């Protein structure tokens, strides 16, 4: 049994992979900040819900069932209890057009990209710290008692 078999470590590994990919995408946006017509790209946010709904959400399941459980779903007794709400705001700007778009069509804002890079780096450092603390707890639990 390796660390990836523990759901916590598997989720942390996924989170760090997402953050690495986000840093790569942001770096590509910065590199193309002078390219005419370039629109910045970003990844969908990594959420707990997305991780739970992933097709391999049951991969850490080691029960006696022949197949692991599928994605976790919320159940309701009445349809009206969990009715989804939709908000269509008239204040949203059209996709790709904002005050940062230059005359050559480039809409990369270096300030926004640096904020995204800093956020990704901070979250990555936090995930690594949590991973290291969890590994230290496992090592401590696996040690032979001093007695």
Q: Can you characterise this structure?
A:
- The protein has a domain at 1-32 and 108-141.
- The protein is 44% helix and 0% strand.
- The protein has helices at 7-31, 48-53, 110-142.
- Helix 1 runs antiparallel to helix 3.
- It is elongated.
Name its key features.
147 residues
Record the SSE blueprint.
Layout (H helix, E strand, L loop, with lengths): L6 H25 L16 H6 L56 H33 L5
> How many β strands by DSSP?
0
Cα gyration radius (Å) = 21 Å
The biggest sheet amounts to: none
Q: Give the H and E element order.
A: HHH
Low-confidence stretches: 57-72, 83-97
SS content category: mainly alpha
Short description:
The protein is mainly α. 44% of the residues lie in helices and 0% in strands.
